[in-house]
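User: My instructor asked us to take a sequence, write out its structure as C-alpha cells, and then describe one feature of it. I'm not sure where to start. Here is the sequence I was given:
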Amino acid sequence: MTPLSVDRRGLSFTFVLGRAMALLLAVGCSGGGAAKGTGGSALGGNTDSGGTAASGGATSAGGLTSAGGNAGSGGTTTSGGTTAAGGTTSAGGTTSAGSTTSAGGTTGKGGTTSNGGSSASGGIPLTGGIVGSGGQQAGGGATARGGATASGGSTSSGGTTGSGGGNGPDAALAAYQGPCDVLSGGCAEAYSVARAMTASYTGPLFALGKASDAKAATLDVGQTSDHKADMTTWSAYCGGSQSNCVVSKIYAQIHKGSNDLLPGVWAATYGPNCSAGGYTCAAKFTIEAATSLPILTTVAPQEYALSGDALATGVNGGSKAIGIMYNGKPVANQKYCCGTFGLTHPHAPATDVAGTDFMAALAYGWKDSGGCCIAVNCGKDNTYCVGAEEEENNDLFDYGTSPIDNAMVVTQFDPTPNAVITYLNGTQEFSHSPPKAKINAGTAIHLGGGGDLSQPDPVLMREALITNNVMSASEVTAMKANLVAFFSALKFP
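Assistant: Let's start with the prediction itself. The C-alpha cells for your sequence are:
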C-alpha cells in the first residue's frame, strides 16, 4: 500500500504544477497586464524627412524587438508545439495628403496580444508613429502570430520621403514646370539649350559636334534630375574648351525628330552661303557666365532650320492664331535684318511677300537706310525695339536707347480682332489692328535667319516656343514668373 500512496502524492504534485503553469499562461495571454508594461515607446523615435517615420523600437528584457514595422511574430510559447493564429494583421497605416509617416505600429516578438486598447500586441502604438515593442516570452512551444502589422503610414504632400511613405519620380515630375506647363493650351513646339520646356520631356536638349570635324560622332547633352542641361559631359568631349565645339542640333521638345533644328546648309539668295555643309553655319558652343548654362550664340553666317527647310509638324500657319515666346538677350549695337525666331516661308524661292513671316523681333536701329524697305527697322537709328517681323511690313515698339538686360518677348497674332500683340518682360507694349501686313505665315521654323535665310541676325537665345493659340495676359505673367524662378540669377526688368 505504501508504494500506491507515494504514487498518489506524485500525481497530486504533478496536477498542482500543471494548474500553476496554466495560470501563468492565462496571465501571459491577457495582454492587459505584463505585455503592457514590457512594451513601451520605440527607440528610433520620429524621423522627419518630409513625413515622419518611426523606425525601430525598443527591445525588452524578454528578448522582444520591434523592427519598426508592426509585425507580431510571436506570442506565447508552450511546450505543446501548437500554433495559434492569434493577433490581428493590418495591411498597414494610413496614407493621407499630408502629415506624418509611421513605419510601423506595434511589434511583439514573443509578446501576448490583447484587443484591449493601449496594450496591443506586446507594445503601444502612439500618435506620431512611435512603436512599442516588447511583451512577454514564455518558454514553450506554441507560437501565436499576433500583433498588428502597419506598413506605410501618412506621407506629407510636397515633403521629402519618409521611411514608409515616399515621393517617387511621379512626384518630382509634378513639382517641375516648364514654360509650356503654365499655358492652358500647352506648346505646339518648344526649344531650349538650358532646360526642359515641359515636365513631360525627358530627352536631350541639344547635340554638340566637333568644330574641326563634322564627321566625328556627336554628343547629346541631356538633362539632370531637376531638368537643367547636364553640364558634366561637354568638357571631356570638347577637350576642355567651349570653342572646340558647335551646336550641331537643337532638339524639338514637342515633335522630336521632325521639328529638330539643324545648322543651315543652303546658299541663301542674299547670303550667307552655307552650302559647304558640315558646321559652316553652326553656332559655337557657349556657356552663359551668369547661369552656368548654355546659351545659343550666333553670328553671321550662323542660322538654323528644319532638315531640308521642311515645313514643321503640328504648328499653325496662315491666318490662324499664332503665339511666340523668345527668351534671350539683345545684342548691343547690332543692326538686324530679320526676326530672331518664328514661322516663315521656306527660304527658296526667295519671295519677299508681306505677311508670309511671323517671327519675334528683338532689334536695334535701322538696317536699311532711313528705316525703309524690308528689314526690321526700329523707329530711330539709335533705339532698340521689339515686336513682329512680318516680311517687309513689321509691327514694332521702341523701348529705349539702351539694350534691356534680358528679354522675354511674346508676340502673337490673334485672328479674331485681326491684331498683332507684343509683350516685353510681361508688359504689353502694343496691340495693332490691323497688322501692317496681312498675316499668312508659312510653317517653316527659322532661328537667326528670316524667311529667305539671308543676312542672319546675331542671336543670344536660351529658349523659345510656339503656340497654336493666343496666350492670355495672365498666362504671359505666369510664364515670366516661371522664367524668373528658373533663371534666378537673371533680371527681366
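For the description part of your assignment, you could build on this observation: Helices lie at 2-30, 34-39, 169-175, 234-237, 473-486. Try explaining in your own words what that tells you about the chain.
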